[in-house]
């Protein structure tokens, strides 16, 4: 836990994504890990194999330049501790988390403080309205009781006048409060979103399985947090004001009634807390299960075509129904507890209707007080009681609020520790720091040393790569070293599951578990072509320039340049077919897989990187098209690392790294010209 979390985090996060977090890297196919609280995902998800028996690197072997750690298969993290539920109910802990989440906005934004001051002023005025009505109605009922017609009509007129005067106060109180909450939501969501998109948090959190359903936390929990927080704090304030003003009224009518009220409210609060204490944990679980259900539905929509081909709807329906049942089962426990609370709350509420009357009746019958004072004591009693009964009356929503705070704090903390982790992994090289980085690399994570400028070299030194922490850890590659000079083209080959894509993940800094040093061009000079193409939401132009933004790019390529590149990748007819470069479509659904792969190569040519990393990026292309893409890359002089199974790829590379030689071993060879020629002849 960081002492400055999350105040410093929220206050200091600039509203930009980090320069290093280049989206193209993220396009490397990501491992989908199951969130800690989520049920397992459906079978078509690209889930990681966690079974050691399914891996081929479990034995201990010495291979070409490699040796394997004795401790390859580590036990994954244990499930949630049993005392987590207890922690969740710890009110002082929740209040601390609340302060840390809430304060940065009010500290950083002067206008927000003025807004809040306005809402607080209106809160005071609104409490004044309640007190005013209490006195008006007292005289009204006394006039009725004493049959004083003049006073009665006068009080009626006063009442309507007060109604007209007070209504705007009540309406504007709500209006300003809602606006204040909305602005707060916008501020905090922008910050959390910036942090989520920065430093690859969105990838790392998913891969580590540290937090479930981040989408829900950003879109829903933050919204609930801001509106509920404001309501909560203002309710406390109103209660404090009410308590002061109505206590004075009640005390002046009958001090004993005040004492009875205090005893009644205290008993009710204690009983409610005892009966309802499990609600916080259950509400937390409910948020998780609802999000899991929604996620199941989203995946059905996202993978509609694959599921339809598989005729997998029955299986999907079963999985979503299972998630629904998990939500319903938990909710029925919530409802059962609410019922128990209901017995308490209903009795508590209705007893109030006669309790003050029973207490003051003797004084009324003896003529010591008027009927107006009796009705006023009713009003004061119920006001104070509802102030003192915040916990009794709002226990359910308070427990939901507490659960939301817990989830947000957990999320923000995970984002914060991700920033620290990323900073430990990456550094920008300066002269003479290589030895230091290498030393760090042997002891901690794999280190990435980015060389500023336009270098086209790539070095991998003593790289030992493990599957991520949290999974059943396994050594995939041991002690790998190689160097690529500008324009070199390396093909990474080997049987399925031997760690080819994982090596690319390590070079991209996505996988850090292991040791060693990768020295590479800066991240904006590296371009990844992932196995599974990614099309962004937006126009064809936006897709061609991705991850750059055509709206904010200073000198975006003109239409002629875009058309030239589309011509190279054989997609020249696409703009005409789709209605122009600015046509917006769901490109992942509209384009064939081969077209999407060609689009990715078009992006690569437009971005002209120093280093291209291609993970089976041409697997859906014909041999001719593949040759054209690689010839073009060679023409640009770009250094290349490709992963692929196709023999034809040999023709476009000058080195081959074979993985999976005796488990985590490897072998690096030059590809001879006659080998290349042989491949070309065979593929003709
Ligand atoms: N998130 C993860 N956690 C644990 N193990 C993982 C994870 N992702 C992948 N793996 C495992 O790491 C191993 C290497 O995966 P990788 O994707 O690098 O294989 P590959 O050589 O590229 O295979 P293919 O040729 O089939 O694409 C596989 O056994 C895979 O199951």
TrEMBL record:
GO-annotated molecular function: ABC-type transporter activity; ATP binding; ATP hydrolysis activity
Family: Belongs to the ABC transporter superfamily. ABCD family. Peroxisomal fatty acyl CoA transporter (TC 3.A.1.203) subfamily.
Transmembrane domains' residue ranges: 116-136, 156-175, 230-251
Ranges for domain ABC transmembrane type-1: 117-400
Polar residues bias (residue ranges): 44-66
Ranges of residues in domain ABC transporter: 458-684
Organism listed in the record: Chondrus crispus
Location of the region described as Disordered in the Swiss-Prot/TrEMBL record: 28-87
Keyword Cell membrane carried by entry: no
Protein name from the UniProt record: Probable ATP-dependent transporter ycf16
Entry keywords, A to Z: ATP-binding, Membrane, Nucleotide-binding, Transmembrane, Transmembrane helix, Transport
InterPro entries named among the record's database cross-references: AAA+_ATPase, ABC1_TM_dom, ABC1_TM_sf, ABC_transporter-like_ATP-bd, ABC_transporter-like_CS, ABC_transporter_sub-D, P-loop_NTPase
Gene Ontology CC, one term: membrane
